[in-house]
Structure formats: C-alpha cells, structure tokens
Amino acid sequence: MKYPGEESSTLEFKREIPENDQIVKTVIGFCNRNGGRLILGVDAKKEITGIPEKDLQQLMEYVNKSIFDACSPPILPAVYSQRIEDKTLLIIEVSSGMNKPYFRKAEGLQKGTFIRLGRSTIRATADIIEELKWQSRGRSFDTMPIYHTKEDDLDEKKILQFLNERKETKKIKTLSHEILSAYELVAEEHALFYPTIAGQLLFGKKPQKFLPEAMIICSHFS
Q1: Among candidate residues 15, 28, 221, the one with its CA nearest the CA of residue 132
Q2: Suppose 193 and one of 62, 65, 142, 186 were both cysteines; which one would form an S-S bond, judging by CB atoms 3.0 to 4.6 Å apart?
C-alpha cells in the first residue's frame, strides 16, 4: 500500500523513529525553512508499514518531549496519528519558525543549526546562520548594505538595460535613489546610500573586490 502524497522538500518519510537525533535535526531543518511534515510508518519505497497501535501513545509523548528538550528556541510540533485502511501513521508537523535560527542545544548555534536543501537536511554554514537571523527580523541577507562601497561601484548602464528590457513599462533614461531602493539595489543609512549585497552581485562593476567568497552553485535534482 502506497502513501498518497508527493515527496518534496517539506515532506519526509521514515519507517520508524530514526536514531542519532535525526528526527530533531529534520524538524530543525523544517523550522529554519518553510516548515514540513515527517511521517513515520512509511518505508523507503513509500510502502505503508504503519506504527503498532500499542506503541503509539508512548511514541507521541516521546517525540514531543524529545523535540522540545533538544531545540532552542523551543519548537512545539503538532504530533498526531492518521489511519489509512488498517495501518496507522505518526505525523510530526511544524511550521516555518518566526525565531530563526533554530538549533540543537547539545551542539550550540554554530554546529547545531540545520536547514533543508532539497530532500536532505544539512548543517548550516555561518553565512546561512546570519541570513536566518536577518529573516527573523524581516530582512534578507541580500538586502544588507555594504558599507565600504559607493554608488559608483554599481554599473549604471547594466541597471538601465535590465530595467528597460521589462515588458510594458516606460523607458528609464536616468536612475534615481527611489528606483534603486525599490529594487533593493541600494540601502539608505543616515542620509547616505550604499550598494546592497544584491546590488553588487547583480550589477557591481567588480563584485569580486567586495565579495571575494561569492560563487555560483548549480544543483540538479532528478
């Protein structure tokens, strides 16, 4: 019997409770991204094996306590069962967290922060942790200003070319702070305008001068 659902970055199946705190890492990864569901009682081939009814209540209490005790800030998952024909599944569901980054207490912030990448849960880098912090404040990493740059470091011709290639819009002859700010290519601080990280990466004359560790990573998932 197959589980009637599509696998995605917000859905993971396990036959039983995984060892080595993998369940905690997965839940943290979900909270640090877009939320998700971990479904216990489904094997690697998506065949429903189910959870024994006699173990269900104890398992639910164990999962709730384990996640709450292991995570910081605290994560309160929705843990419930779902019956499909004669099999019972245990579902652990969490939403995208509002107090990112979430991490495993035993490992601390730098080593215990995890995110979802495709269908995998991986340890977050220092840069990703900083980005998660900004997300919890309502800002993203690429909108942050680079204070040791100037507006002249942006290529005005490239920006105008990009803007004027948009469909059904009036042609723009000169750039203004309003336009640059609307596209978050510059940020204003104390009446001064600084190129943002996005501005430098997309339209910088020499982005490698200010962001030497920036790179393009391409991934392919079948």
Answers
A1: 28
A2: 186
Span 25-51, mean pLDDT? 91
96: enclosing H helix or E strand: none
**Interval 7-20 mean pLDDT:** 77
Give the up-direction half-sphere exposure of residue 152: CA atoms within 13 A in the CB hemisphere. Answer: 0
pLDDT tens column, 82-92: 998 899 999 99
Tokens 């971990």, residue located: 38
The dihedral of CA 8, 14, 17, 18: what is its sign? negative
Residue 20 burial (C-beta neighbours within 10 Å; 0-12, 13-18, 19+): exposed
Query: String of b and e for 43-69 (b: at least 16 CB within 10 Å)?
Result: eeeeebebbeeeebeebbeebeeebee
Instruction: Give me the domains of the chain, ranges plus CATH numbers.
Output: 11-136 (3.30.950.30), 141-210 (no CATH)
pLDDT category at 44 given cuts 50, 70, 90 is confident
Which tokens is 108 given?
A: 């601390």
Nearest to 60 by CA among 17, 5, 3: 17
How high does pLDDT run on average in the chain? Answer: 88
Distance of CA 202 to the CA centre of its chain: 22
What pTM was estimated for this model as a whole? 0.65
Mean pLDDT over 104-123 rounds to 93
